[in-house]
Please model this.
Amino acid sequence: MFCSLKYCIRTLSKPSVLTGVRNCSQFTEQNHSNFGKNGHFDIIIVGGGATGISLAGAIAKNPKLSEKKVLLLDASPSFKGYNENVYSNRVYSINHNTVELMKYIGAWDTIKSIRIRPVKQMQVWDACSDALITFNHDNFIGDVAYVVENDVLVHSILKELQPYNNITIRNDAKIDKVILEQDGSTYGKVQLASGEDFSAELLVGADGANSMVRKQMNANHFALSYNQMGLIATVELGECDDNFVAWQRFLPNSVIALLPLSENLSSIVWSTYAKHFKHLMQLDEADFIDAVNNAFLQKYEKNSVVEMAMGAVRTILNTNSSVVRQLPPQITGLYGKSRAGFPLGFGHASSYVGRGVALIGDAAHRIHPLAGMGLNLGFGDVKCLTETLAKATYNGFALNDLNHLCEYEQQRLKLNVPIMLGVHGLQQLYSTDLSPVVLARSIGLQITQQVPPLKKFFMQKAMG
Ligand SMILES: Cc1cc2nc3c(=O)[nH]c(=O)nc-3n(C[C@H](O)[C@H](O)[C@H](O)COP(=O)(O)OP(=O)(O)OC[C@H]3O[C@@H](n4cnc5c(N)ncnc54)[C@H](O)[C@@H]3O)c2cc1C
Model:
């Protein structure tokens, strides 16, 4: 599988193409009526999910880009805001890089003032063996990650965008057609289902895993379905002193995570096969909660060969007993009707950029949620693309200068690809209960837990 994935990582060098030094602000809507009857913009962002709107936010806040005329188009209806009294079931675990981006956009203080839950420790363990790993700062002085609801995140970013007249957001704006810059034309164009069309110097595809912009780019796209669904739900906890721990257990055929959301609520992400997902969705509330508690607590028969080998590893590493495993809090109920599901897949575009076009977020790369990294990678794209566009502008180049866009691509490929392969590898490693595989992964986990530099390395990667 690793070999077959490698072909999607294209070479990091690209022939340089100079596309000119004209600054886009010289152009007006009138003199480009052929390219977009309904308006010409510097940048059109296709897709207003979390990555699309944060790109608009980062552009607005960047002094070198703050004058640029940006149009963000999204097919879905206008955002209704977050509900003060009800927690949403769509939550993300975000890392420190994402926090930095939110601070840059100005949204972090609003997020904190509404609600966000710090994660002070993570415990990940294998149901098929005694292997376990924990991540935390010494004496829990710092937070390992944060859990935030999508609606709180989106609300806080949109609030920052309000004063900017140069940023236009259009909802209910489904794009039917994308025409990319070609020889003889300097602009890309999008056409809405309503018939309106707009042109821009740079089109950014933030339109998710089925990106229309990416398809139009004709970039190779490696995609596979895990034939799994990610079941999400918000659950109520029984007695729990400090709900600051994120828990993840690898089960023989699935992986379940419990992320802290408030003092007495947590969020579940249970990645499992389609038939099991359907079964879990059909269970009544009490049976569903039993199934979740079982998933965290049920003892599985251990393989004696694996047990013996793990004992030997512990002796070699000089740890006299198996690592102390903590137990997650008891789950007592389902919060509202919060069960929902998302299909899980892997996808990677061989190119993130082309003439007058760039991809960010799931449009460029999609990964399994077991490491909670998908959106964090997308936010990494946002930061990098913003910096690259600012650099191009500062250097007197157009926003669609391909040399600069290629810099963006190279930087992101270097960071995204190893994480994507790592997460995909973990998914494969934990999709079986075959003894040799269980042995290999258990030893790997145990060694990482016991060797501080190795553990620190993985912790830094996960925390961003
Ligand atoms: C179960 C689950 C749990 C996850 N947990 C985490 C986590 O804890 N941490 C993390 O970092 N990541 C997590 N992820 C990944 C994360 O959800 C995605 O990476 C992220 O939502 C992608 O954001 P995006 O803005 O790139 O795309 P999307 O959220 O898919 O947004 C795309 C937008 O484009 C719009 N659009 C699409 N086509 C068109 C069109 N033709 N015209 C106009 N608009 C269009 C859509 O309306 C949509 O608003 C999880 C994923 C799943 C499935």
Summary: The domain at 2-81+88-463 is CATH 3.50.50.60 (FAD/NAD(P)-binding domain). The chain has one domain: 2-81+88-463. Residues 1-33 have pLDDT under 50 and may be disordered. The chain is about 35% helix and 25% strand.
